[in-house]
Amino acid sequence: MRDFLELIVSVGEAGSIYSLVALAYLVALRPTGVFNFGLGEWAGLGAFVGITFVVTLGLPYILALFPIIAIMAMVGYAAERLTVRPLIERDAPTLTPVLALLGVLVMTHEAIVFFFGTSNQYAPSPLGDGIVALGPFVGATQSFLIIAVTGGLFLGAWYFFERTVWGRAFEAVALDRFAAGVVGINLRITSALAFAASGAIAGLAGLLQSPLTSASYLMGLPLAIKGFSALVVGGMGRVEGAYFGGILLALLEKLVLRYAPIPAGFAIGVPLALLILFLLLRPNGLLPARTVR
Amino acid sequence: MRGRVVLAWLCGAGLLVAATFFLDDYTADMFRKLLLTTTLVLSFNFLFGIAGQLAFSHVAFYGIGAYAIVIFAHQLGWPLPLAFLAAAGCGFILSLAVAVPSLRLEGFYLGLASLAFAQLFTVVTSQGGELTGASEGISGFASPVILGVRFSGQNYLFAVIGLFLATLAILLAVDRSYFGRACRAIRDNPQPAAAMGINVARTKIIVFVMTSVLAVVAGMFYAYSDNYVNPFVFNLDYMFLLFFMVVIGGTGRHIGAVLGSAVLFLLPEILGGAVGKRHLFFYGLFVVMAILFWREGLAGIVDWLKLRLKKAAPEFRAAAPAEFSLRSSRAVGGDATLDPKQPILSVRGLSKRFGGLLAVDGVDFDLYPGEILGVIGPNGAGKTTIFNMLAGAFAPSSGSAKLLGQELMGRAPHEIAASGVMRTYQHNRPFAGLTVVDNVMVGAHCRFLSHGRVGTKRQRVEADVRAEALQILDFVGLGHLANAEIRRLSFGQGRLLEVARALIGHPRVIMFDEPAAGLTPGELDKLGEIIRWISRQGIAILLIEHDMHFLFPLADRAIVLNFGRKIADGVPKAISADPQVIDAYLGMAVQQEAGVA
């Protein structure tokens, strides 16, 4: 029983991180149609920027959050402004901005190695490294923080996309860029905001994960893969899909790790297996987009 | 011509072989690694540059080849030919497993699946225990001996040169066939490619498997480069390097793949310590810059040199007289055996619902051989939706459409095209990366499938189709632009290209979606002539048109749609007098004018 309760906490924590990365993909994908494979590296960057402000500069965590989020949003904005937008406005094939972002991916990765090195770095948790018990659930305080922050962010994202004019505008741009422009939606601001938000969310995912695993220059790729697997599993049409996809992926991964007699690294096969299974059987994911009304 | 090609290949091979005699140990090592990388870049260029597939698994398949041959031939001790086949078989099955789920769907799914696959490969090899040697890799196995020759040192270099030339020859042969044209067409514009009879998903899967197996074979050669395989050679850094080599070289160009690979491979050697080990950062920067400002890449320099040194292939050719010869009219014509009294296409109760909107509501009509049937109605009446259903692009909500008694609904677009129903689009949808004549030839894709997939038969069909494409281009008045790039065409010329592309498919039915929109008066007359000529060949024509001055004199009959329903069906004169039609669409003024016309 205790085993099971611990499992629930670790699934909630890992699943939250995956769903955050999935959300970061989704936010940028919706209005631009561009899939940014470099998001994992941005998550890694978020972790290291966090260490820079909290450990190196010694800022209190709450204060450090502002520059961290701002820098990650700037990274996203700059990528959109300098690579994606010029290509979209030139009517280049969709593949071209995706390709340019691969260049950005490699640049981000190399910059992380250059500035922060290749050794793992300890990242402190804002709530300390203790273990707490919340009712029957026992886990690291950071785990509970991750679950709470992610839950809050998803509620906010859901409200934004479903209930606000700006959120509907994102949706409209995703459906038909040209028509959305005609009815007065500012395409430039929408795309720029989307990429800035995407960078901030990805950076937050890395920042939240780093106290549990420590920050590493290699942390980006697994996060990228798990994030998009969660996105496909959940369905790209809806925000809630990203959340449930992340949780389902984490659940399967933890079960395999616990019960299957394979080396721990092989668990990276779980997202691939799940991805292929969903592409074959349910390509629209758990929660398909609502049909046009 | 053929002799010159053979001579060129012999010269190239001779040069590469001769080079091996002037190398010391270090440069020989560089040379074979460069050749292996270039081989890999060539096949990746086909996958990514020519077929437009975003995949991250190419290096992983290279690694699978290397590991598989070592495991089968040395760990398990199988005879070399058997190990070779087993390794290639592994590559074949694994590439199918990645491609089939992800390529049936449109989008970036292949990118996702192949990235996860590549990561899994790294993990499996570095944690695979004794079988893969874990992170230490496998080393110390002997070079193979085939027919008494040991493949090490210079002999190995010869083998790698052979691999490079063979890969290049295979890729060139495939690229210069209808299949390569189909790949580029899918890359540029998948929907019209399907409407020309190309099975998009199947073609994509074949390309992925073919190039992945080529990577597997190259990997087998790599294994004997240092007689050492380890997981870190086949990592994502190398994969990104391949992307960068293709883009810097010039995406989709074979010469670009060779140049890009050579330049990016040798640059760190030349610069030495100047950029240190982190040269990938600068490569990433170069690539972003190249995508933004230098799309033609290194291949563009070659084109420029060619243009300066000698006259490149002329873009414009002298137009032949715009008369169709008897030979080609026979080739284009519909079936003379068809009974003109029997409908060739019967549509019954065709409906399409989008959510709450009934876009097409129970439409019936018949179309007879050689008939020109106008389809008119206000915007949003469902005209193009009917075309999309008949072409298989949308599945109907209900209803049927029979071509000579055979049901079309429920079939895929390429199957419908193959059965003889071709279409044009409301907005020009050319294949931007192909020349004008190649655009037209894509329309004849089905003829290769039925008459000449391989060998001399294919070459004969290719020659026939090219000759016919040129004739059709002359006929529609684009003959002088046959070798031009698509961006040179005016809007009206692009409309006529769509007509030519549909015509070469030897259709029984052609659906024209507003072919006259945006044409100059001269082009309009030309188009009218062309459509009349097509109908005289016995081909049935469905014609959506808003310009009644153009349509009414041309059409034998017209149907009128309003809010998805057919409200009238008859000869143009009767239609233009129908009060319901006037009310819904024509208005008074047009009625009077058209009545006169």
Q: In total, how many beta strands of chain B?
A: 14
Relative strand content of chain B: 5-15%
Arrangement of strands in the largest sheet of chain B: 10-11-12-7-13-14
Tell me the radius of gyration of chain B: 28 Å
Q: How widely separated are the two ends of chain B?
A: 56 Å
- Major pleated sheet of chain B: 6 strands, mixed
Annotation field: number of helices of chain A:
11
What structural category arises from helix and sheet content of chain B?
A: alpha/beta
Number of strands of chain A: 2
Uncertain spans of chain B, ≥5 residues at pLDDT below 50? 325-333
Figure out the total of helices of chain B: 24
Give the end-to-end Cα distance of chain A, rounded to a whole number of Å: 46 Å
Q: Could you say which structural class the secondary elements and strand pairing of chain A correspond to?
A: mainly alpha
Assembly type of the chains comes to heterodimer
Helix content of chain B: 55-70%
Please write the string of helix (H) and strand (E) elements of chain A: HHHHEEHHHHHHH
Low-confidence stretches of chain A: none
